[in-house]
Design brief:
Layout (H helix, E strand, L loop, with lengths): L24 E2 L11 H11 L13 H11 L6 E4 L1 H13 L5 E6 L3 H9 L3 E6 L8 H11 L3 E5 L11 H10 L3 E5 L23 E6 L12 E4 L5 H4 L10 H10 L3 H24 L3 E2 L6 E5 L7 H10 L2 E2 L1 E2 L9 E5 L3 H15 L1
Parallel strand pairs: 1-11, 3-4, 3-5, 5-6, 6-7
Antiparallel strand pairs: 2-8, 7-8, 9-10, 10-13, 12-13
Helix pairs in contact: 1-8, 2-8, 3-4, 5-6
Length: about 350
């Protein structure tokens, strides 16, 4: 019996992969180091017990959208919620991309921009960042002029480099591009600048979309909940491509309850940022090239210590410490990325790293 043919454009593609192995310390996926507060879990279970399991969830997720709108001081019709920010990205590509349309990424960056764009049949143009992994206004304008993108992805802070985008670059992207400018702020709570403020200005509000996630600061990676802040005119367009009742009742409950603990989570941002700075100094003291980060992770290059990135990653894995190997990413030869964990996890990582270098 013959197998049905997969789409021609998918045959040469790979899925998204990140190693999943049993280790003592896992610092490879930029998760929060701690679970939500105990009071969150108790409140969630109390509300989950009231769910009408035989009824569909609120299709519009209205209560969650209203609470997110209040958090960001925007209107509820500017909030779209989905199964992680990846579904938000997919919805954007389904709405504004497709065959004959172009998406632009700035490499190295989060791999799912290109992956999702290609699976929705966009043409993807990969522009290059400079040697400091930043996007210059001149290079941005050149790409917009030459490629005329329908979708332009900016990651701020950028994954895996930790580099934030400047306000000037975002403003230039919005003013120069005729397409949608997507600013992914998965790690935005750790950064000095958020593009959400720009959405409150009418001159930029028609084409700018800012994505956020509950997976990082909110300690809810296991729930898969994300959202975007967008111009109100876009949400009815999103409804044309998103599946009905796509956001289940438990996700909506979890999101609403999490927002009650905003102050506690902001305190965690400060604690993680302090740990990030401490670990960065320790990495530099080991002779590694460390890149400045405004996220909950740090990227470093191993060349100066005389060990190739692949080899050092394997040595750490042998010590039951898992971090992210970025050595095969464009422009990131011998680069590794470590998530900031608890103080104990970070100390174990640093001790293992020192032993692996020698």
């Amino acid at each position: 019996m013959k197998r049905p043919l997969v789409r021609d454009d998918l045959r040469s593609m790979d899925g998204y992969h990140s190693p999943q192995v049993e280790v003592d310390v896992r610092l490879n996926t930029n998760e929060a180091p701690l679970a939500p507060p105990e009071d969150f879990q108790a409140a969630f279970l109390e509300e989950a017990a009231k769910v009408d399991w035989h009824r569909y969830p609120d299709r519009a997720a209205q209560s969650l959208r209203e609470e997110l709108a209040a958090l960001h001081e925007v209107e509820a019709d500017q909030i779209f919620v989905a199964n992680g920010s990846n579904e938000v990205l997919q919805t954007l590509c389904l709405t504004f991309g497709g065959h004959g349309r172009t998406a632009v990424t700035f490499e190295p960056t989060y791999a799912m921009y290109g992956q999702i764009a290609r699976t929705t049949q966009c043409r993807v143009f990969e522009a290059a960042r400079d040697l400091e992994f930043r996007i210059t206004e001149s290079s941005l304008e050149d790409v917009i002029d030459s490629e005329d993108p329908d979708l332009l992805f900016l990651c701020s802070p950028n994954n895996p480099t930790g580099t934030p985008e400047s306000k000037e670059v975002v403003e230039a992207a919005v003013s120069k591009s005729r397409g949608v400018v997507v600013v992914d702020e998965a790690y935005g709570q750790f950064a000095d600048f958020t593009a959400i403020e720009m959405l409150k200005r009418s001159e930029v509000s028609e084409s700018l979309v800012v994505t956020r996630t509950f997976s990082k600061t909110w300690s809810m990676a296991g729930v898969r909940l994300g959202y975007c802040v967008a111009p109100p005119w876009m949400l009815p367009e999103f409804e044309k491509v998103v599946l009905p009742y796509h956001l289940d009742s438990l996700k909506q409950i979890a999101g609403r309850i999490a927002l009650r603990f905003h102050d506690e989570m902001e305190q965690r941002v400060t604690q993680i940022s302090d740990e990030r700075d401490r670990v960065s100094v320790a990495l530099s003291d080991l002779g590694l090239e460390v890149f400045s980060s405004q996220a909950n992770f740090i990227m470093f290059r191993t060349t100066a210590c005389g060990v190739e990135g692949d080899e050092l990653w394997q040595r750490l894995l042998a010590k039951s410490v898992l971090i992210r190997n970025c050595s095969k990413w464009p422009g990131l030869a011998d680069c590794l990325r470590v998530t900031v964990g608890t103080e104990t996890e970070n100390n174990i990582f640093l001790e293992a790293l020192e032993g692996a270098i020698k």
